[in-house]
Write a structure and sequence with these properties.
The protein has 4 helices and no strands.
């Protein structure tokens, strides 16, 4: 790992340390790229799931879950929707 000198906003660095639970600034500066990359991976996965939803890939699974919940004694979804204001 190399050493790099950068100027960082003190307030943002302090917030980053709190958000990441870092004890020292170096720890949070090393964790930040990992957090950004993980956020991008989660965002891409969510986008892929939304595309699959739009194609109807989850319809069969949702229907099967509804049937299973009914067999287990849970109230049907329609009943819950009636309870909404």
């Amino acid at each position: 790992m190399g050493v790099t000198k950068i100027d960082v906003d003190d307030g943002e660095a302090a917030r980053e340390m709190r958000n990441l639970g870092a004890a020292i600034a170096e720890e949070s500066m090393n964790a930040a790229p990992h957090e950004v990359n993980a956020l991008r991976r989660r965002s891409a996965a969510l986008e892929r799931m939304a595309e699959r939803y739009e194609r109807g890939e989850f319809d069969a699974a949702v229907a099967a879950w509804g049937r299973r919940k009914t067999c287990l004694g849970f109230a049907p979804l329609e009943q819950h929707e009636q309870d909404r204001p």
